[in-house]
């Protein structure tokens, strides 16, 4: 029989071991390629505002974060199933909240806009009746806000898995409008050549905020709470504002 003092020491050793194991845990953060938010450079380095935030979080928490870029729907599914710990950059929607646990605060903001060919005088005044009959492209798996989702049910919508394809189709005249965001679209436009120039038109479609999201399972709650506390500190001490300026990203605060 183990004396009570010795037993207590054993328990402390076990708990200490568990704490060290938890602190040394490897985390997997996933997402798709988002300009200025989550990108893979030719040298194999992951960069962007989301990566910078998570690297600082990992350093504070003494954990290792590994990154993986996958198609967007696969990334969402991996986090929903608990196969990955963090999803970088999703917009918050009621549908996603059913299967994902979102951080308390967003870390970037996007204006959702229509792009059109510069030589095509499309009439868009915010009323979806004004673009009825137009051929409209959108990105597969993206959220554009509840109004867009409802109003476009009866419109001619084509979905694309990547922005480059949508831009090229719009430039060739196979589309009249492409629904996207300026941040991602301008980054792609800077890298490719297209037959005809395209340009964003006003008014904007909606404003969407991007978050870190975590698996819904209760065992991931401590990770999310620790991230929320860390991110609050970043906002309060000004680090978050500095990073936003570094990556030229619109911040929600």
From TrEMBL:
Residues 27-251 form the Solute-binding protein family 3/N-terminal domain. This is Transporter substrate-binding domain-containing protein. Keywords: Signal. Residues 1-24 form the signal peptide. The lineage of its organism: Bacteria, Pseudomonadati, Pseudomonadota, Gammaproteobacteria, Alteromonadales. Belongs to the bacterial solute-binding protein 3 family. The keyword Metal-binding does not apply. It holds the Pfam family SBP_bac_3.
């Amino acid at each position: 029989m183990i004396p009570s003092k010795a037993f207590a020491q054993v328990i402390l050793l076990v708990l200490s071991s568990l704490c060290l194991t938890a602190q040394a845990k490897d985390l997997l953060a996933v997402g798709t390629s988002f300009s200025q938010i989550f990108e893979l450079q030719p040298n194999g380095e992951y960069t962007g505002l989301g990566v910078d935030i998570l690297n600082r979080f990992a350093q504070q928490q003494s954990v290792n974060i590994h990154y993986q870029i996958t198609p967007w729907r696969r990334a969402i599914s991996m986090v929903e199933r608990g196969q990955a710990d963090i999803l970088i950059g999703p917009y918050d929607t009621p549908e996603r909240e059913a299967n994902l646990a979102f951080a308390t605060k967003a870390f970037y903001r996007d204006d959702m806009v229509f792009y059109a060919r510069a030589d095509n005088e499309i009439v868009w005044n915010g009323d979806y009746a004004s673009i009825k009959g137009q051929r409209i492209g959108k990105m597969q798996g993206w959220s554009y806000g509840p109004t867009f989702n409802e109003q476009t049910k009866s419109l001619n919508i084509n979905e694309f898995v990547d922005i480059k394809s949508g831009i090229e189709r719009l430039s060739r005249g196979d589309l009249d409008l492409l629904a996207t965001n300026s941040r991602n679209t301008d980054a792609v436009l800077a890298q490719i050549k297209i037959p005809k120039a395209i340009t964003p038109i006003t008014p904007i479609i909606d404003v969407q905020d991007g978050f870190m999201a975590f698996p819904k399972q209760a065992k991931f709650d401590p990770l999310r709470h620790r991230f929320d506390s860390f991110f609050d500190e970043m906002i309060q001490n000004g680090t978050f504002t500095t990073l936003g300026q570094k990556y030229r990203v619109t911040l929600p605060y």
